[in-house]
């Protein structure tokens, strides 16, 4: 056994990330490079100024910043650079595997081709795997404030890529952005098409949204979502807790945005989820816009807030590998690495 500090334990822990938006990993310095490359004027000229402008207090004010950043992504090379930067960053944090959300509608509506986006991502995924050993897949997200028709048309446009997940690495579909008035049921048809093709399903049920309990119910019961992204409001309804437990749903919790939307509630939220016997994972969400809090930092936040023990942290990491949409052979490799880690490292308090 090797004695390490909690910080070192968190750094070395083998990890999988299941809730990160690629467009949300756009760091201020890459924004500046893209703006120069594409001749796109920026309001701020330094990375520090850009980051100072990241002030938000709820989902719509966050999305306004996010959509502004998306405009900078123009070419296949831009999408490559975005994806490679994220993968290089988290590979250093011992993330062995990641399932990454992306929002094709935000690019298609600006006149870009689906292929431009996906070719850039796929090339970066291949190169990052070669350079760092990190494996990754993609989850195509629908923008919930856009129409059901737009989601379905995007699905049709993506069809050739969805048919070949071995090439495109798109293994599932998700649902994100502004939840108010946009329940999962709005997209039932497109999710049914995805499910019929053998794609995996997940949906955001963001914190403290209007009709959140009905949205969670629809996602789990009517649409058959395999995971819930955020979904903490499940705690307020015993019948939803039971449903989530029975269906073996995994929750992708993100401490960084939660701290903004529910300040001071992290400890109780995490402890209540664990006490309810629900499977949770810890993830970053949009680290480019959230003080560069990636996986290790997100786990450190959760650990500090809820006094998570080394055993609980290993279980949280195990939950992520178990909920990942990969082959059993690949999963076995990651779980063996985690097992090795658990037998090698022991946390000691600093002297
Ligand atoms: Zn999210």
TrEMBL record:
Concerning Gene3D superfamilies, the annotation shows: Metal-dependent hydrolases (3.20.20.140)
Question: How would you classify this enzyme at the top EC level?
Answer: hydrolase
Tell me where in this chain the Adenosine deaminase domain is found: 14-333
> Is-annotated flag, keyword Transcription regulation?
no
The cofactors it requires, by name, are: Zn(2+)
User: Which reaction is catalysed here?
Assistant: adenine + H2O + H(+) = hypoxanthine + NH4(+)
Q: Which UniProt keywords apply?
A: Hydrolase, Metal-binding, Nucleotide metabolism, Zinc
Where, in this chain's numbering, is substrate bound? 286
Listed EC numbers: 3.5.4.2
Record note on cofactor:
Binds 1 zinc ion per subunit.
Q: Where does Zn(2+) bind?
A: 19, 21, 204, 285
Positions of the record's site feature: Important for catalytic activity:
230
NCBIfam families in the record, alphabetically? aden_deam
For this protein, the record's HAMAP family field holds: Adenine_deaminase
PANTHER family linked: ADENINE DEAMINASE, ADENOSINE DEAMINASE DOMAIN-CONTAINING PROTEIN
The UniProt entry's sequence similarity note says: Belongs to the metallo-dependent hydrolases superfamily. Adenosine and AMP deaminases family. Adenine deaminase type 2 subfamily.
Q: Describe its function.
A: Catalyzes the hydrolytic deamination of adenine to hypoxanthine. Plays an important role in the purine salvage pathway and in nitrogen catabolism.
Protein name (record): Adenine deaminase
Lineage start: Bacteria, Pseudomonadati, Pseudomonadota, Alphaproteobacteria, Acetobacterales
């Amino acid at each position: 056994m090797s004695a390490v500090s909690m910080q070192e334990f968190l750094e070395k822990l083998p990890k999988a990330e299941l809730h990160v938006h690629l467009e949300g990993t756009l760091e201020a310095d890459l924004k500046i490079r893209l703006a120069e490359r594409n001749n796109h004027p920026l309001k701020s000229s330094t990375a520090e100024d850009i980051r100072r402008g990241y002030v938000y207090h709820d989902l719509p004010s966050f999305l306004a910043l996010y959509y502004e950043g998306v405009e900078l992504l123009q070419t296949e090379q831009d999408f490559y650079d975005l994806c490679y930067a994220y993968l290089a960053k988290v590979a250093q944090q011992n993330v062995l595997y990641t399932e990454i959300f992306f929002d094709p509608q935000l690019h298609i509506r600006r006149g870009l081709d689906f292929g431009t986006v996906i070719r850039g991502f796929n090339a970066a995924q291949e190169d990052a795997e070669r350079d760092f050993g990190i494996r990754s897949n993609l989850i195509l997200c629908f923008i919930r404030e856009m129409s059901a028709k737009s989601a379905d048309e995007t699905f049709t446009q993506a069809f050739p890529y969805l048919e070949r997940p071995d090439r495109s690495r798109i293994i599932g579909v998700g649902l994100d952005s502004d939840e108010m008035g946009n329940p999962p049921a709005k997209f039932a048809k497109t999710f049914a098409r995805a499910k019929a093709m053998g794609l995996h399903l997940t949906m955001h049920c963001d914190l403290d949204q209007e009709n959140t309990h009905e949205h969670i119910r629809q996602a789990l019961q009517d649409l058959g979502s395999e995971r819930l992204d955020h979904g903490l409001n499940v705690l307020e309804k015993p019948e939803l807790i039971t449903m989530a437990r029975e269906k073996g749903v995994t929750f992708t919790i993100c401490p960084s945005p939660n701290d903004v939307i529910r300040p001071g509630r992290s400890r109780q939220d995490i402890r209540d989820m664990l006490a309810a016997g629900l499977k949770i994972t810890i993830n970053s969400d949009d680290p480019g816009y959230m003080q560069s809090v990636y996986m290790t930092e997100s786990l450190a936040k959760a650990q500090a807030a809820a006094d998570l023990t080394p055993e609980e942290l290993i279980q949280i990491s195990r939950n992520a590998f178990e909920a990942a949409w990969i082959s059993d052979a690949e999963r076995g490799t990651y779980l063996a690495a985690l097992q090795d880690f658990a037998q090698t490292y022991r946390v000691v308090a600093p002297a």
